[in-house]
Design goal:
This protein is an alpha/beta fold and 279 residues long. It has two domains: 8-171, P-loop containing nucleotide triphosphate hydrolases (Rossmann fold, 3-Layer(aba) Sandwich); 201-267, Conserved Hypothetical Protein Ylqf, Chain: A, domain 2 (Orthogonal Bundle), CATH 1.10.1580. The protein is built from eleven helices and six strands. The protein has helices at residues 8-20, 42-48, 65-77, 95-103, 105-113, 133-141, 183-192, 202-216, 220-225, 233-244, 255-267, and strands at 26-32, 52-58, 81-85, 121-126, 159-162, 167-171. Strands 3-2-1-4-6-5 form a six-stranded mixed beta sheet, sandwiched between helices. Strand 1 (26-32), helix 2 (42-48) and strand 2 form a beta-alpha-beta unit. Helix 8 crosses helix 10 (233-244), helix 8 (202-216) crosses helix 11 and helix 10 (233-244) crosses helix 11. The radius of gyration is 20 Å and the shape is elongated. The two termini are 23 Å apart.
Length: 279
């Protein structure tokens, strides 16, 4: 599958982000814990220019816990401050305040020596579309500061949010990068819903997802749908179609409907805790 997808507003958002970085003390990047590398925008690394960096492993409740811990170790070794959060339920969100203070410890000390006391830390929050930034901000601020939605592209422009007397947060639109060197990155982002569904073939996507699950989490699909093992992914999707009543007139399976059912169930975490990549 080929992914072409870089709309003009993302180019504009990236330029604005580069300008805003001059005002920023720390960059907080949300990644999806199921794909902590594929959901991390490499353009941010190029723009960061020595700023303190925090990675929040969001939606960790949907990911394989052992793999999440491996990824946290991986990023800590690279010099990031890392923690995991479940923005929807608010789990782990309170700890982010302390991590911001740790990440900015040297900057706070420099300010103190210059006689600047109690200046709020300015943090920029970044992440690809549909990674949960708006939900995290609302949970962190304990109020509805931003629009949220379960589709990519809800945040259209930047906005400053005063979280408390210690932290000001600059929210930015979710941006992707112009071209994938590795198409499997695009595939993983399609699985989690960070690329709009209309840009790819849902049937092909579901077969590739089933291939991965059959190899890495073989019990996930049979257990959730209460179906037997199948000889290949196409047969397995047919069993899902039969179980869910995805039928066309005349009695044929509606494979596209079954495919959407599978992908939606995966994204909602109904197939169990699944990670799609290993460090």
């Amino acid at each position: 599958m080929q992914f072409q997808w870089y709309p003009g507003h993302m180019t504009k958002a990236k330029r604005a982000m580069q300008e805003d970085l001059k005002l920023i003390d720390v960059i907080i990047e949300l990644v999806d814990a199921r794909v902590p590398l594929s959901s991390k925008n490499p353009d941010i690394d190029q723009m960061a220019n020595g700023k303190s960096r925090i990675i929040l492993m969001n939606k960790y409740d949907l990911a394989d816990d052992a793999r999440t811990n491996q990824w946290m170790d991986y990023y800590r070794q690279k010099g990031y401050f890392v923690t995991k959060v479940n923005s929807k339920k608010g789990t782990g969100v309170r700890a982010v305040q302390d991590i911001i203070q740790k990440a900015c410890k040297e900057k706070i000390e420099r300010d103190r020596k210059r006689g600047i006391l109690n200046r709020p830390i300015r943090a920029m929050i970044v992440g690809i579309p549909n990674v949960g930034k708006s939900t995290f901000i609302n949970s962190f601020a304990k109020k509805a500061c931003t629009k949220t939605g379960n589709k990519p592209g809800v945040t259209k422009g930047k906005q400053w949010i005063r979280l408390n007397k210690n932290v000001e947060l600059l929210d930015t639109p979710g941006i992707l990068w112009p071209k994938f060197e590795d198409q499997s990155v695009g595939l993983r982002l399609a699985y989690i819903g960070s690329i709009k569904d209309e840009l790819f073939n849902i049937y092909e996507l579901s077969i590739l997802l089933l291939d991965y699950l059959r190899e890495n989490y073989p019990e996930a699909v049979p257990s959730y749908y209460q179906i037997e093992e199948a000889q290949d992914s196409v047969c397995q999707l047919e069993l899902i179609a039969a179980r869910r009543g995805c039928m066309k007139a005349g009695g044929a399976y509606d494979m596209d409907k079954a495919a959407k059912c599978l992908v939606d169930d995966f994204r909602a975490g109904k197939l169990g805790t699944v990670s799609l990549e290993t460090p």
